[in-house]
What we know:
Blueprint: E1 22-23, E2 34-35, H1 70-86, H2 93-117, H3 126-129, H4 139-162, H5 168-190, H6 205-228, H7 233-237, H8 239-256
Antiparallel strand pairs: 1-2
Helix pairs in contact: 2-6, 2-8, 4-5, 5-6, 6-8
Amino acid sequence: MGAVAQPAKPTPAPAAAxxxxxxxxxQDDDFDMHIERDFTGPASSSHYSGAPASGPVSKHGDxxxxxxxxxxxxxxxxxxxxxxxxxxxxxxxxxxxxGPLLALVVTGGAAFGLVRxxxxxxxxxxxxxxxxxFDGTSMTTSAVVSLVTLALAIAxxxxxxxxxxxxxxxxxxAAVLLLMALAMVTVALASTGENSAxxxxxLLLPYLMPVFVALLxxxxxxxxxxxxxxxxxxxxxxxxxxxxxxxAILFAAYETSRFGxx
Length: 262
């Protein structure tokens, strides 16, 4: 018998591509998948970008272009600091020269005028107005004077260091005041309560007192000169009264010295 022809099997129609864009057709090879990307579908409208967002995300999922990152805030802060540094007042050379000259002229004029018209023979001696603190007859009075002098020395030295620019005249004046406090400690320890010769520490005070006052006056003169170099009219006008006060302090140093006793 002849071979009977087998009828041809109908070829199955290709399956339609799924709406989600992934084809799992069985005609594919093993472990082979064809991923079709539908650029016209709703996935293309998401506009996804792999770049990191530079700002907060709104409630609708859009990135706000007006939001700033931490780097931008730091950049603005540095710009503000540079602008502030540029605007710092810098006095001119003429102002730096006129300030000390004006302070010296006013200080010298005030001191000379006081010596010329206010000086009296014999000068001024603080030891004469508080004799029991220096002659060794009252240990309590000497101790109180030494403690007060020590406190003033610490305060004046701290002030001289804290000022900008630093006042080394104030620091030197505080050092002399500290020596006076130590001298008063020896006076307090040597006090016997009887009328006798003053202790050795009291012999240094007539020399240390005018030096302390003179250094204090020079420090005030320096502050007057520095005030003239500051920005504004008010600090420049304050130079004259400060310099006049320095002249009065120097006059007090003259009165407490041996020259004032002449």
